[in-house]
Amino acid sequence: MKIREATDKDTPALLPLLDELGYPVSFEDFNIRFKRFLQNPGYGVALCEMDKQIAGLVAWSRSSLFVSDSTRFHIEGLVVASRYRGQGIGKMLMKFVEDIAKESSPAIIDLTSGLRRAKAGSHEFYKNLGYKNEGYMAKLYLRKEL
């Protein structure tokens, strides 16, 4: 098992993972989006390789916060291929981002996990890693598409 940063040569192999995450996309569209995403300073995508196959990915963005001195890392996406789940890959990918975030301390990592992901255990997965949405820091996620 090996974790490494993704390159644009990996984009064809990432398409099935995006499908499993619920965001199907064509190669042409994703290739453009991937390159544009990585052009942003502090943005990244890491992969887990197993048996010469891409078993999972995590994507993140980094920004400065207005209301505190912390650097914010937002998990843009995390997915492990269904046949590789339950082997600690998701945990390793999250630790990869956490290690990067520690270099910018103080830092916070936040993410959203849709209600449709609860049945698959995603919410419990994040809670087991120490991510919370409770107390005075509880969040309400709102969105408007334009």
Fold-level CATH name? Aminopeptidase
- Structural class based on helices, strands and sheet pairing: alpha+beta
Q: How can the largest sheet be summarized? A: 5 strands, mixed
CATH superfamily: Gcn5-related N-acetyltransferase (GNAT)
Shape: globular
Strand order of the largest sheet: 1-2-3-4-5
Measured as a percent range, the helix fraction is 25-40%
Rounded Rg = 15 Å
The level 1 CATH classification is Alpha Beta
Number of strands: 5
Share in β-strands = 25-35%
What do the pLDDT scores average to?
A: 93
- Which second-level CATH architecture applies? 3-Layer(aba) Sandwich
Query: Unreliable stretches, pLDDT < 50, 5 or more residues?
Result: none
Note down, in words, how this protein is organized.
The structure is a single chain. The protein is of the alpha+beta class. The chain has a single domain, classed as 3-Layer(aba) Sandwich (Aminopeptidase), CATH 3.40.630. It has a five-stranded mixed beta sheet with strand order 1-2-3-4-5. The protein starts with a strand and ends in an 18-residue tail after the last helix.
